[in-house]
Amino acid sequence: MKTRKIISAGPLVLEAIYPRGSAQDSPRVRAGKRRLSSEAQQRLNAKHSFQKLELLLAANFVPGDWVVTLTYDEEHLPRSRQQAVARLKEFRRQLSQRRKTRGLQLVMVWNAENVFDQGRWHHHCVINACGEDFALLRELWPWGSNVEIQTLRIDRDHSYEAIARYLCKEQRERPGLRSWSYTRSCRQPEVETMAVPDDTPLQPPKGATIYEDQRRQNEFGSWRVVKYLAPNWRREIRRPPRRRKR
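The chain above was modelled as a monomer; its predicted structure follows.
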C-alpha cells in the first residue's frame, strides 16, 4: 500500500503519493520507505511564509478578484509601521461594514511595506471582488489619491506563488517579521490523506495547469509530488454567517 495526500486550496492542488510501511517489511526496507515518505512530505510542507500565503490566496481568491495597492501622499506619510497598520485596519473595518449592509462578506489579505526602510509606506491587498466597488475603495482611503486596482489573473504564467512571493519580498530580508495578515473570513486549505494500492497512479486531471512535478524512485519504492491548477472550478458567493438566535 501507499499513502496518497491531497492539499486543496481552491483551484490549486498539491497531490502526492509515497510509500507506507508494512508489518511484513524488513527493518532495512522499512527504513528505506520511511526516507522516501519523509522526502515527499517535506515537499508538501509549507515551511516558508510565502508558501503558506500561496495556499491561503488560492483557497480564497480567483481570477476576477482584485489586487489593490494603497499609497500615501506626502501629507499623510505614516511615522511607523504601527501607524501604517492602524490606518489599513480602519480602511478594512469600513469596507467590511459597507459590505455587510449589502449582505456580502469581505475576504482580504494585505501587507504593510516600505522597501526595507528606504522607500514609502504602502500596502498591497488582495480583495474578493464585489460589484463595481472601485469608487468605494478610493473613498475609504483618504491618506492618498493613488489607489491602484488590478484584476487578479491566474494562469500558467501568473501563479499564486508569484503573488505570494511579491507580498513577502520585504519579509524575507527580515527574519521574524511577518508582513502580511488576513481576515477571519478566509478559508484554510483542506487536507485529505488516504491509503491506496501500490499501483495507484498520480494523474492530474485532463486540462490541469502543471506548476511542479517532482518524483524519485529507488529499490524501496517511489514518490511523486505534483502541484497543479485544476481545470474546472467556480466562484462561491460569500455571505455573512447567520447570527444564532439567543
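Confidence is low (pLDDT under 50) at residues 237-246.
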